[in-house]
Write a structure and sequence with these properties.
Layout: H1 3-14, H2 20-27, H3 31-44, H4 55-60, E1 63-71, H5 76-84, E2 89-94, E3 101-107, H6 110-122, E4 126-134
Antiparallel strand pairs: 1-3, 1-4, 2-3
Helix pairs in contact: 2-3
Length: about 150
C-alpha cells in the first residue's frame, strides 16, 4: 500500500459512508482512481471488510476505556484468550513499545467497568496495567473541498 492507499483507508475509517465522489474530492483524485484502488485493496486483502456502528452499539457501552497491559514472560497468547472470553472486552490489540496489549473495554456502569479491570489485573502473568476512560469521540473535521 502506498501513501494514497493509506489516505483512502483513513478517509474510509473517518466516514465509511462517504461516496466515491466525496472520497475522490477529499483525496484530490478521480472517482475512477478511488474505485480501482478500493477494488484492488479488497482483492489483495488489505481491506478485509466493512462494518457499521449503530446508535444501539454505542448505547450498549456507555462506559468505555482502553487498558494497557504489560505481560510477564511468554503468557501473551493465554492472556489474550482469557481476555477475549470476558463479555465486556470489545477488542484486544498487540502492540509495540512499553505495553504488550491494549484492551478495549465497554461496560454499562463504572462499577461494572471497575470489576472488569480488577478481573484483568488478577490474571496470572499481568504484571502491570494502565487504564484510560474514553470521555468522548470526535471525528476529524476536514475543510470544505478536501485535505487539511
Amino acid at each position: 500500500m502506498d501513501k494514497l492507499d493509506n489516505e483512502l483507508v483513513g478517509a474510509l475509517r473517518r466516514d465509511g459512508r462517504a461516496s466515491l465522489s466525496e472520497l475522490a474530492a477529499d483525496l484530490g483524485v478521480t472517482r475512477t482512481t478511488v474505485r480501482s484502488r478500493m477494488a484492488r485493496m479488497i482483492a489483495d486483502g488489505d481491506i478485509a471488510g466493512f462494518t457499521v456502528l449503530t446508535r444501539a452499539d454505542v448505547a450498549q457501552s456507555p462506559v468505555r476505556g482502553l487498558m494497557m497491559l504489560g505481560i510477564e514472560g511468554q503468557g501473551t497468547e493465554r492472556i489474550m484468550a482469557r481476555l477475549s472470553a470476558l463479555r465486556e472486552v470489545r477488542a484486544v490489540h498487540t502492540t509495540n513499545g512499553s505495553w504488550d496489549l491494549i484492551v478495549e473495554i465497554g461496560a454499562d456502569t463504572l462499577e461494572q467497568f471497575d470489576r472488569v479491570l480488577f478481573a484483568v489485573r488478577k490474571l496470572d502473568g499481568v504484571r502491570r496495567s494502565e487504564t484510560s476512560l474514553l470521555l468522548s469521540t470526535r471525528r476529524p473535521v476536514r475543510p470544505e473541498g478536501g485535505r487539511p
